[in-house]
Amino acid sequence: MPSPAICSSLHILNENYKVLLSRDWRGDVSDSCIQRFVSQMKGSDNDQPSIPIIRDTETKTTYVYIKGNGLYFMCTSKFDTNILALFTFLHDLLNIFIAYFGDLEEESILDNFVVIYELLDEVIDNGYPQFTEASILGEYIKTDAHKLVKVKTPSVITDAISWRSEGIKHKKNEIFLDVIEQCDLMISSKGAIVNAEVRGSLKLRTLLSGMPECKLGLNDRLKLGSEHNYPNIVFEDMKFHQCVKLSEFHEDKTISFIPPDGIFELMSYRLTNVNVDPLIWCEMKVEESSATRIEYVIKITSQFKEKHTANNIVIKIPVRSDVISPEIKCEAGSITYSPELESMIWIIKSLPGGRAECARIKLSFPSIAEERKTFTSPILSVNFEIPYFTISGVQVRYLKVSEKSGYQALPWVRYTTKSGSYNFRI
Fold it and tell me: Any idea which UniProt keywords this protein has (predicted)?
């Protein structure tokens, strides 16, 4: 028998390979698959016709894609899958979108992503393509001015809840929510922001009995696509767990769901073009006192409100491997020399907002300055964590749990901002 078509994830990209929408059904393909796919596409010879099948031997992932109206429809698979069936599915999916949205363009994807997620829930079941007849789908999923109205779907079409088992029991019913934002930053040697991006996620740990229905309300800071409060903050690449009822989120930013038991990611998002001051700012001056001696003066400043505190700050200061006899002075924390990392490591346990701390490091070298020319434009990296704080201002207004047995569940919400790739070029 021929192998079945198994689609691990689906991604829609524009002609510049920017991700407009993603859906992950099986969770067996890394988040880096997009970057690897884009690298393969950009590395291909434009003078030659491209083959719409890419096999990544390193990750053992197959990419299958089609292009229509300047958009790439790409699906991934980790299996020995039926490629022809996947191509058929992608073409059928393209026809479904055209039937729903008319002229299929980038704007129609962004304006109708909630409807698209609903359609994908019907045409794919755990990675296996199901029925893809637009005329049948039109009887159950209806749109009017980008608003989704979904009538009751026959049981032959919608399967039971696959992510949660019946009869789950816990002695103490609790639900824990972590709102985590991770900031990536690159500052040039002239102090200009080269790249700034924030990646956010809502992660849950549920210990709830029975079949609970949860409602999570967010504040108005969370906007979709180009619909936002601040001209330089745009939420992109919003992804939801399959348990989320997307129609209610589209209407009033309420996330309704019947959760899996245990730990899972309810939602993720990304912010680009973030026009805010870097949370931690670093300055470093290099003074060469002699042919074999260099002095580093490092200043770190916390650029957030005084009511918040950054914890576990680690600053990695690159130095040459032939450093001898370092002399260290710092106002806060401690600095140690790490030969294996070829770096000085400055650790500060906590730093309140609106504060600045300085350090001075004198380094000696056995070699003269002429032999040190190869050590140019080093990168100073920073790691930190700020509890009870988010860059985007996203906040949970409420988290409610209802279950037919009527038990009371205890909700816990925690906010954290962390550094991602947070670098300063010296």
Answer: Membrane, Protein transport, Transport
CA neighbor of 413 nearest in space, from 397, 391, 392 = 397
Domain count, the chain: 3
Is residue 177 a contact partner of residue 413, using CB atoms and an 8 Å limit?
yes
End-to-end CA distance of the chain: 60
Length of the chain, in residues: 426
Question: What would the two tokens of residue 7 be?
Answer: 């689609």
d(CA 12, CA 108): 12
CATH number at residue 197: 2.60.40.1170
Q: What is the pTM of this model?
A: 0.61
- Per the CB < 8 A criterion, the answer to whether 186 and 194 are in contact is yes
Alpha carbons 398 and 252: distance in angstroms, whole number: 13
**What is the span of the domain harbouring residue 351?**
280-387
In angstroms, the CA 25 to CA 129 distance is: 11
Which of left, alpha, beta for 8 (phi over 0: left; psi -120 to 50: alpha)? alpha
Q: Is 198 contained in some domain?
A: yes
Q: How many Å apart are CA 34 and CA 54, to the nearest integer?
A: 12
**pLDDT, tens digit, 9 for 90 and up, residues 99-155:** 888 778 888 888 888 888 888 888 888 888 887 777 667 766 765 534 333 444 443
Q: Report the alpha-carbon distance of residue 86 to residue 320 in Å, rounded.
A: 52
- Same domain for 400 and 381: no
Quick one: 380 and 397 in the same domain? no
CA distance 316 to 119: 47
Residue 13 to residue 30: CA distance in whole angstroms: 17
CATH number at residue 33: 3.30.450.60
